[in-house]
Amino acid sequence: MTSFRKNTDRLLEVNLQSEKVLAVAGSMVAYTGTMKFEKSILGGEGLFGALKRKVTNEGIGLMQVTGTGTVYFANNAAEVAILSLAGDKLFIESSNLLAFDASLKTNTAFAGLRGAVSGQGLFTTTVEGVGQVAAVSRGNLIALEVSPNHSLQVDPDAFIGYQGSIKQEFILDVNWRTMVGEASGESYQLKFSGQGVVYIQPAER
Description:
By secondary structure, the protein is mainly beta. It is 10% helix and 59% strand.
């Protein structure tokens, strides 16, 4: 398995030993050793998954990096966080992906009204398997726990992703104050219940 670490808060360092890693196209900022960079058409999802992503317009431009040495990735000086998967599934906005182990499988999932209202699209990306995922966010990524006794409500513009056995609901708070322009500005939220972790950023899109 490839080795992920944060070189700085905004720079991902991946060490390869005749291995490969998938990353967002154009995110490489430096490398040492011998590396080969190729456009990845299928990513980690196979032909059917790639076609599904094309149809749903949940596009991620990926590249495959193969070789021995160290490669560094960044994306518009965004903060980097490393998430570990142990056979579970991560739901994450495609715009917040930076890199992931080539052994992980990606797919698309319906985002429902959340995507429509937040302007991020009707579908989101899933990453599944055993390995590491590097995500980016505006400000340090925040992990908030959800338990059967404690649900969580999140602004869709701050939402990054989630892991675990979580149910997602869309809550629209429209009342007479909204109609006359005296609402708080938080007319819709996401409600998460179940057991798991929800990731948010301390900034809105």
